[in-house]
Specification:
By secondary structure, the protein is mostly helical. 77% of the residues lie in helices and 0% in strands. The chain has two domains: 39 residues, no CATH class; 385 residues, no CATH class. GO terms for molecular function: transmembrane transporter activity. It is found in: Cell inner membrane.
Length: 442
């Protein structure tokens, strides 16, 4: 019924159907997402005649000609430098000392270090790989089944795009014309809520199955361990401190914070003797590969978004949906369902650039705050990282451990459930996203 209403509203023809079929077919054949989007966009423009092909090149350039996007490669590079300098292991030492008093302490430490890494790199895949290599073997030694240990790391790494600074918030801010700094501030409480949900899930599962013992330290022993860890590894927190203070105090833009973080991390690596000039080619190539996946998607999505807008698809979608129901609670559930389904089969960046312009008018129609909509969208898409068939974090941890993706996905079900509860809270309680914002954004 929804599809029929959309057809009647927008009068969709083969100039829409054929590009969609082409896009789905190319994705099914494992053609890179940017090439699939670009091919569909060009075919749509050729068939519809809505935008001269001579302007496609200009549209591609304008899609990535934004100062805010400079922050993306900087945060990616910061994450690479962090791993190569060994500072990420300092986070693990402090996290372990902080949670060693509790039963299941190392599992909790694993989740915390995922959050710490997220607060610097802004990337979930990088966090899953870095933290997975450090912790999965030890989690298994502590008593966790290997599939569950992999699921724990995969879930914790979802915070990579949910805890600011986040590449996903930079991209959605660019697509919808919203300040990335504002989105970072709004995402702080929701990101921490997801982190806490993952921590609580692990504690509950560990209590039920008794995977990991521990938790027998007295307060004095715990405090001594924590003090020693902080005394020896405190300097690792200089980098996230600079990022958070710079962005949230308004003294630095996200791009400036990313640049400062890269420089400071490199200097610390040289001072510690863990970074050499010979490490730079590999670091730069690794960061360039990740950046080379993100930016072409954004560039080729620009003409596609223009074609869809000219054809009236976003407005037609709103009219079609509201003709079925105007209940805002039902419409929010519909948006969440679309986002989770999309997150299961496609990465965050293409989902943002394709779905954000289509769903935002619907959110505006029901009176949802635009900041709250962005937080809800990114958080719902984040659940897709541990949901088959294409949960990115599942593939990352499977790749570094050799564990079956299906086994990992099965053990990730409790994390998906509790993360979805947080998504619903974000969607229905605006204060979670807007409490820290100035009144002008509420």
């Amino acid at each position: 019924m929804l599809w029929n209403n959309l057809q009647q509203t927008v009068e969709l023809g083969w100039d829409f159907y054929l590009p969609v079929i082409l896009f789905v077919g190319l994705i099914a054949m494992a053609v890179p997402v940017w090439a699939s989007i670009g091919s569909a966009a060009i075919l749509m423009l050729v068939m519809s005649g809505d935008l001269p092909l001579s302007l496609v090149g200009e549209s591609l350039f304008s899609g990535i000609d934004a100062f805010a996007l400079t922050a993306v490669p900087l945060f990616i590079l910061t994450g690479d430098v962090l791993v190569r300098t060994g500072l990420s292991r300092k986070f693990l030492n402090v996290a372990e000392a902080l949670t060693c008093w509790a039963k299941g302490g190392f599992g909790s430490a694993t989740v915390l270090v995922c959050g710490m890494f997220a607060a610097i790199s802004g990337s979930d895949a990088a966090g899953a790989a870095a933290v997975g290599r450090m912790t999965i073997a030890r989690l298994v030694e502590s008593g966790y089944p290997r599939p569950y240990a992999c699921a724990l790391v995969a879930a914790g790494a979802c915070t990579g795009i949910l805890i600011p600074p986040s590449i996903a918030y930079i991209i959605i801010g660019l697509v919808l014309g919203i300040s990335a700094s504002t989105l970072f501030l709004a995402a702080l409480i929701p990101g921490l809520a997801i982190l806490i949900a993952i921590l609580v899930t692990n504690i509950v599962v560990n209590r039920i199955y008794g995977y990991e013992g521990g938790g027998n330290l007295s307060f004095g022993e715990w405090f001594t361990n924590l003090r020693r860890a902080l005394a020896s590894d405190w300097y690792a927190f200089i980098v996230p401190g600079i990022i958070f203070y710079g962005i949230f105090s308004g003294r630095l833009t996200p791009t400036e914070a990313g640049a400062t973080a890269v420089v400071v991390t490199i200097i610390m690596g040289f001072l510690l003797g863990t970074l050499k000039l010979s490490d730079f080619p590999a670091m730069l190539v690794s960061s360039a590969k990740v950046n080379g996946i993100i930016l072409p998607i954004i560039a080729f999505s620009a003409p596609l978004a223009e074609a869809l807008a000219i054809m009236g698809v976003p407005q037609g979608f709103v009219t079609a949906v509201t003709s079925l129901t105007e209940d805002p609670y039902v419409l929010i559930l519909l948006m969440i369902g679309i986002l989770i389904a999309a997150g299961c089969v496609m990465e965050t960046t293409p989902n943002i650039v394709i779905l954000a312009p289509i769903l935002k008018p619907l959110a505006d129609n029901i009176g949802m705050n635009e900041i709250q909509f962005c937080i809800m969208m990114i958080t719902a898409l984040g659940v897709g990282f541990i949901t088959p068939p294409l949960g990115l974090n599942l593939f990352v941890v499977s790749g570094i451990t050799g564990e079956s993706i299906l086994k990992i996905a099965a053990r990730a079900v409790p994390f998906v459930f509790f993360m979805l509860l947080v998504v619903l809270l974000i969607a229905y309680v605006p204060a979670i996203s807007t409490t820290l914002l100035p009144d002008i954004y509420k």
